[in-house]
Design a protein that fits this description.
The protein has 474 residues and is mostly helical. The protein is built from 19 helices and 8 strands. The protein has a two-stranded antiparallel sheet with strand order 1-2. It has a two-stranded antiparallel sheet with strand order 3-4. Strands 5-6 form a two-stranded parallel ribbon. Helix 2 runs antiparallel to helix 3 and helix 2 crosses helix 4. The longest helix has 37 residues.
């Protein structure tokens, strides 16, 4: 392999001759061999957008030569189109608040821009990583801004997938609108409901999750570009600060705006914590849904059938397990752990800067992408092919002593309890016991024990109570 020699304040290093990254990136590569995972693709694109916007803004106010600015912008466009991503070699978790990530972008963009202008890699004759690509910037405003761009883009992809899952719930709500089943509290039998009502509740739940995430995403549109090191804006022309935010908004199509207080925005990553919290709540809710699906499909309840996607046992032939809800549970546990990481990292910032944004953003990206895949997997491999054991569910409801609840307003709590105990002891249905003992006429029993009416607000047979009351008054 051929090498070139580059120097920095620590001395010389041999850099691969064909590499677009430079000495500072290489030092970071050697220093931070932690996860062995590279920078998220959307983060790379976020960095390119920031550098492109900064070059255009600096050229507009006469602080950067137009030819240099155009070369930088063209280099950024190549990155945005998917080129040079392999040149971003720093680990996702790194010390220095993301300086290594920022320098990786600066060096790749500078070397490609130099190449466009007829220069050689590593010479920086025409475009310098710091004097030109990083002009008017600091890692401390570049990384938070690029990270927010990347987070919003990945959040939108998650929301698309969540809305597809929500539509799948809606379809099941309609499909199962007349499937009666027992509700359950404390894992014991409770009053009847329709299976469609459960999916309607899931639709509502997921809608709240989406709203929380969208609200958190809106908070990320406040950025601290122009804050430079600590938020005071040293070395950033006020005209540049205004223009760079405008260009970031233009290049992303997002309504990015300058944070009202740049010092506050540089010190405090609470907007990222808010997103983490919203994602954790989504994970908790998806896990609760997965728990319910596993129980309802279990041999204990047998209310639904989950699609069979793989054999379930290496020793028990013919066994199938609820592996899709199980994987959703595990995703949720993972997300909760990542939320703890973000919480600790947000809390651990000191004074004018939180230096832990690399792990915050890495955790956020992991949350967003893992949840997106989990939502898609749940929809495609569990919800869309889910079927109901309608006849069995109806049989269980009709023979459950708990439907005596509907009799209570008519016969009183004590007599209703006696009927329930007899049903449990004899195996007879509540209806049969009521008719045998002439507690109600058949017509009254039909009205009061109407399953559909039991699943809507009101007192079944309320008109019978009024009739009874009027007779007493007469």
């Amino acid at each position: 392999m051929r090498y070139r020699i580059e120097t920095d304040s620590l001395g010389e290093m041999k850099v691969p001759a064909e590499a677009y990254y430079g000495i500072q990136t290489l030092r970071a590569k050697e220093n931070f061999q932690i996860t062995k995972r590279g920078i998220n693709r959307q983060m790379i694109k976020g960095l390119a957008i920031v550098k492109k916007a900064a070059a255009r803004a600096n050229a507009d106010i006469g602080m950067l030569d137009e030819e240099v600015a155009k070369a930088i912008m063209l280099s950024c466009d190549e990155i945005l189109n998917g080129r040079l991503h392999g040149q971003f070699i720093t680990d996702v978790i790194q010390g220095g608040a993301g300086t290594s990530m920022n320098m990786n972008a600066n060096e790749v963009i500078a070397n490609r821009a130099n190449e466009m202008m007829g220069g050689e890699k590593g010479k920086y004759n025409f475009v310098h990583p710091l004097d030109h690509v990083n002009f008017s910037q600091s890692t401390n405003d570049v990384i938070p801004t690029a990270g927010k761009i990347a987070t919003i883009r990945q959040t939108k992809k998650l929301i698309v997938e969540l809305k597809k899952l929500q539509n799948a719930y809606l379809e099941k709500m309609v499909e199962f609108s007349d499937v009666f089943k027992l509700g359950r509290t404390h894992l014991q039998e409770a009053v009847p409901m329709r299976l469609g009502q459960m999916f309607e509740a899931l639709t509502s739940l997921l809608g709240r999750d989406i709203s929380r995430i969208e609200q958190a995403m809106a908070g990320l549109r406040d950025i601290n570009m122009g804050a430079t090191a600590i938020g005071t804006g040293l070395n950033a022309n006020p005209k540049y600060i205004k223009k760079v935010v405008q260009y970031i908004a233009k290049y992303t199509g997002e309504d990015f705006r300058s944070a009202k207080n740049l010092i506050d925005s540089t010190r405090h990553p609470d907007g990222l914590l808010a997103m983490s919290t919203a994602l954790k709540i989504l994970a908790v809710n998806l896990s609760k849904t997965a728990n319910d699906l596993r129980l309802m499909a279990s041999s204990a309840f047998q209310e639904i059938n989950l699609p069979k996607v793989q054999p379930g046992s290496s020793i028990m032939p013919g066994k199938f397990n609820p592996v899709i809800p199980e994987v959703v549970n595990q995703v949720a546990f993972y997300i909760m752990g990542l939320d703890v990481t973000i919480t600790k990292a947000a809390e651990a910032g000191q004074l004018e800067l939180n230096v832990f944004e690399p792990v915050i953003f890495n955790s956020l990206f992991e949350m967003l992408n893992t949840l997106r895949r989990a939502a898609r997997t749940l929809r495609e491999k569990a919800i869309e092919g889910l079927t109901a054991n309608s006849e069995y569910c109806a049989y269980v409801v009709e023979h459950s002593p708990i439907i005596v609840t509907a009799l209570s307003p008519h016969l009183g709590y004590n007599l209703s309890a006696k009927i329930a105990q007899e049903a449990m002891a004899t195996g007879k249905s509540v209806r049969d016991i009521v008719l045998e003992n002439r507690y109600l006429t058949e017509m009254e029993a039909n009205i009061i024990l109407d399953l559909h009416k039991m699943t809507t607000p009101g007192i079944n047979g309320e008109e019978l109570l009024y009739r009874k009351k009027n007779k007493k008054e007469e």
